[in-house]
Amino acid sequence: MQETPSAASVTRADLGPEESVVATRYWHLLDDGRVQCDLCPRECKLREGQRGLCYVRARIDDEIVLTTYGRSSGFCIDPIEKKPLNQFLPGTAVLSFGTAGCNLACRFCQNWDISKAREYDVLADQASPDRLAVVAQALGCRSIAFTYNDPTIFHEYAIDCARTAQAAGIKTVAVTAGYVNPAPRREFYDHMDAANIDLKAFTEDFYHRVCAGSLQPVLDTLAYVANQTGVWLEITTLLIPDLNDSDHEIAAMAKWIVDNLGPSIPHHFTAFHPDYKMRDRPRTPPESLTRAREIALEVGERYVYTGNVHDAQGQTTYCHVCGEVLIERDWYRLGAWRLDDAGHCMSCGAVCAGVFESKPGDWGPGRQPVRLNEWHV
After folding, report:
1. Which among 72, 52, 219 is positioned nearest to 158, based on CA atoms?
2. How far is residue 302's CA from residue 24's CA, in Å, rounded to a whole number?
3. pLDDT in tens, 250-267
4. pLDDT, tens digit, for every residue of 59-85?
5. CATH numbers and ranges of domains, the chain
6. From residue 327, how far is each of 74, 119, 189, 312, 345 by CA, in Å?
């Protein structure tokens, strides 16, 4: 199920506010006159006026432009655990936002109203990178997350926002499928402090049939982030009944993670609900998540979590040496905290992998929508 670039012809005048259309760098001209976008492995080859599959990158005036710079589908303050990041500044608030479009075509997409949007009506909020940083600081957010749709496709906007945020002492978080080419990948992760990358399955067949993509580029991104950057990394796998939840596949995935990324990368197994083009599948039973967690722990992963279900045991962080509770969680609410100021277990002294401050944040489970154009600072 390979999707092709949009054939509908557009001009610069069709693309909304002039300031939202910016030139990009990752493309080159082909011998047949088409321009190839080099941002992601899809490498859409476009004639004048065509859009890529992501919908937000288009060929205009013989170059590839980003058409959604500075425009968002909405801003919200979330608990950092909702990204999900369980071992990066636990308990703190993160200012989350996305744009529109996506460079994969997952039939089960849980954010399809944003990632598959083909109308700019969803991009109701506007924010320059400078304003975003100022408002995040005023709201007491420790980080900014590029999420809801994949930040890979708004590469230029995300990087500019990351620069201003980090200059203001605010961390940056990417929530992404990791479907990106090597050169833009290096530039992008140079500006990120943390990432949660989806590992949607562990077969090429799943990625091809269900996501219209490929597994290997995602594995390459995971290995690059884990082994060649200082970015804090966590992984999420949405388990879909009878598609990617077999014991064999989960064990193979966990073994690859341990062997190639190390045992200390947190791994979240989260529950699927019927949505978008996959409404014929049942919800993921909680026991499937528990089984996946047990398999991954047996294979050697140290920090494995369940998500999208009420499971305090599966969402709590334990010491990988003595088994003591280190960070107790119930949904997004933190309980007991048994880490010292250096991130060591208070019982045995073993190091807990992560990015921690001397005490956890106190944001709690609340979610607060924000309209940046109404916020006066």
Report:
1. 72
2. 40
3. 999 999 999 999 999 999
4. 999 999 999 999 887 899 999 999 999
5. 12-66 (no CATH), 71-314+353-368 (3.20.20.70)
6. 31, 42, 28, 11, 10
- Listed in sequence order, the residues at least 6 apart from 349 whose beta carbon sits closer than 8 Å to its beta carbon are none
Phi first, then psi: what are they for 24, rounded to 5°?
-120, 170
pLDDT tens, residue by residue, 232-291: 999 999 999 999 999 999 999 999 999 999 999 999 999 998 877 788 899 999 999 999
Tokens of 289: 């998540």
CA nearest neighbour of 292 among 250, 234, 241, 244: 250
